[in-house]
Amino acid sequence: EVQKLNQQLEEKNGEIQQMINQPPYEKEREILRLQKTLAEKEKAQATSDVLCRSLTDETHQLQRKLASTAEMCQHLAKCLEEKQRKEKGNSDDQIATERSNQVCLQLLPLLDNETSLQALICNLQEENRMLKQKVAHV
């Protein structure tokens, strides 16, 4: 039993010596391989970061376009309603106004809080301007 253990110990010592005596170029080759893998992963991460920033910018741009489209839709709906009031209601205009209002109502939930707040401010400013014009006219 002791002889078996001594023999196993000598085998393990031989394996350790082989690892120690391993040529340095193999160690360097492994280091270079690991460095290359690390560089590839860093490059992939940088590419991913750039794509994420690009998508974020595009998302913000699309949100601004959506806000301006919704605002324009609301403005057109108001103009149509005013025209409708002046003409004392043509049924075709009422249908167009309803459709325009439906589109606007569908777009509004898509806006984020800041954008909808900005659109509300713009609408209030426009309404205020129109009221001032009416007061000046009267």
UniProtKB/TrEMBL annotation:
GO terms for cellular component: cytoplasm. Signal peptide: none annotated. Keywords: Coiled coil. Residues 1-25 are annotated as: Disordered. One of its GO terms (biological process) is cellular response to lipopolysaccharide. Residues 1-14 have a biased composition (Basic and acidic residues). This is TNIP2 protein. It comes from Climacteris rufus.
